[in-house]
Amino acid sequence: VSAAGPPGGLIVDMDGVLYRGESPMPGLSDFFAVVHDHPYVLVTNNSTVSAADCAAKLERMGVDVAETAVLTVSEATARYLVSALPAGGRALVLGSPALKQAVAREGVEMGGDEVEAVVVGLDVTFDYAALAKAATMINRGAAFVATSLDPVLLTEDGTVPGTGALVAAICACVRASPVCVGKPSPAMFEVAASALGLPPADTLVIGDNLRSDIGGGAAVGARTALLLSGVTLEDEAADGVPDFVFEGLPALTAFLVEAWAR
Ligand SMILES: [Mg+2]
Prior knowledge:
Layout: E1 9-13, E2 19-20, E3 23-24, H1 28-35, E4 40-44, H2 51-60, E5 70-72, H3 73-84, E6 90-94, H4 97-105, E7 109-110, E8 117-120, H5 128-139, E9 143-146, E10 152-155, E11 158-161, H6 163-171, E12 179-180, H7 186-196, E13 203-207, H8 210-219, E14 223-227, H9 234-237, E15 244-246, H10 249-261
Helix pairs in contact: 1-10, 3-4, 3-7
The chain binds magnesium ion.
């Protein structure tokens, strides 16, 4: 690795790094065979899945990962809410069942006529009534929290509106700006590093997105490794922002074997 020595732990983006949709990336099992004995946390900006969903998906791909090694943006958002809300504070949550379950698990009450926070994740039932309620609460002083600001999502069916598109609709009719918890926000990387018990500078952030993974990781002082297996095209990676660039998991795994052997 660099003069700073081998990474103490890994923060690993999942989609586009470990798998694409339901297809495992080549070299997935070998990667985990090497990483298994080192601290790692798997992260995702997808607010529609739980840690259990992610662990189950990897299990279908033949990889055994503990639920506690997975940090979804819904869980990071729920923990952020606990730290940001006054005791007994309530939240209006626009989002998936996974997001609402994560918030409930942290003990934050949802619903009611008055709330102290409005949380926006990917909500496929978003409508005018939800927009009106969210805007009213934010304009009355509720905190405005977003799981992501990405305006679009790449899916197997093409490009669809992302959480950022819903956030933009709310931004059009409120006076406040949202706090984003998901990557590239420092919040997600700080929660992940603290789950490893490491300062961010001792971690290696591995991802396929230059902005959310590499830019976000670098902003908290982590070293970064870009994998070209996902959304980033090689010519975009030429700007030299990541510390390391790999074609895919096999090259990354070989690098980690060598780094940790020293
Ligand atoms: Mg990704």
